[in-house]
Design goal:
64% of the residues lie in helices and 0% in strands. The chain has helices spanning 5-9, 13-46, 56-94, 106-112, 118-127, 137-140, 150-153, 157-174, 178-183. This is HAT C-terminal dimerisation domain-containing protein.
C-alpha cells in the first residue's frame, strides 16, 4: 500500500490506507468472533464441572452471581480481544518486508507464522485457498447429467456435440410456447423404445 497508493490516490493516500486498515480490523474482529463462538460452544457442551447441587435458594443466588460474573467475563474478553486484535495486526504490519523472490512460498510462510499471528493465519488460509471441485468424467460430457449410452457412444464426437448443440438451439425456440406442451419437452438424452429399431 505504501508503495503504490501514493501513485494511485495522491492526496487521499492516508484516507485510503486508513480504510484498508479499518477493513482489516473488522475482518479480524469477525474471525476472532468465530473462534470465540467455537470455544464457547465447546465449553458449554462439556458442562460446568464446578456446579454442585444445592438448595433452590442457593441455586438462585448462584445463578445471579454467575450472570454478573459472566457479564464481567464478557467485558474483559471484549476489551482484551480488541487489544489483541490491534497488537496482532500492528505487529504484522511492522514486520520487515520480505524481498521478492521467484520461489517464495506464501502458504509456507503463513504456516510458520501461525503462532505469531493466529487470527491472520486463519484469514490467509481462507483467502489464499484454491477452490477445488471434482466431477465424474462421464457427467462432464452429458448434458442431461447421465452417462452416454452405448448406442450414442458409437457416434463420432463431432457429431455428438453437433446433436447436443442443435438440441439446445432448437428447443430454445419452443421454450414457453404452445408447441412445447403439444409435443412435450423431449431431449436428446430421453430414451425411446424404438432406439434399437434404428
Amino acid at each position: 500500500m505504501e508503495c503504490y497508493f501514493p501513485t494511485i490516490y495522491r492526496d487521499k493516500t492516508s484516507d485510503e490506507i486508513k480504510k484498508i486498515h479499518d477493513l482489516l480490523l473488522r475482518m479480524i474482529r469477525e474471525y476472532m468472533g468465530k473462534s470465540k463462538a467455537k470455544q464457547t460452544s465447546s465449553v458449554s457442551s462439556s458442562g460446568d464441572p464446578t456446579h454442585v447441587s444445592s438448595s433452590p435458594s442457593t441455586t438462585v443466588f448462584s445463578r445471579t452471581r454467575l450472570n454478573h460474573l459472566s457479564l464481567f467475563d464478557q467485558f474483559i474478553s471484549l476489551a482484551s480481544s480488541a487489544t489483541i486484535m490491534k497488537i496482532e495486526l500492528e505487529s504484522y504490519l511492522e514486520e520487515s518486508i520480505i524481498p521478492r523472490t521467484n520461489n517464495f512460498n506464501i502458504l509456507g510462510w503463513w504456516n510458520v507464522k501461525a503462532l505469531n499471528y493466529p487470527t491472520l493465519h486463519y484469514m490467509a488460509r481462507d483467502i489464499l485457498a484454491i477452490l477445488l471441485s471434482t466431477v465424474a468424467f462421464e457427467s462432464t460430457f452429458s448434458t442431461g447429467g447421465r452417462v452416454v449410452d452405448t448406442h450414442r457412444s458409437r457416434l463420432h464426437p463431432k457429431t455428438f456435440v453437433a446433436l447436443m448443440c442443435a438440441q439446445d438451439w432448437l428447443w430454445y425456440e419452443f421454450k414457453d410456447s404452445s408447441l412445447e406442451s403439444k409435443f412435450g419437452a423431449s431431449t436428446f438424452d430421453d430414451d425411446d423404445d424404438d432406439d434399437d429399431d434404428c
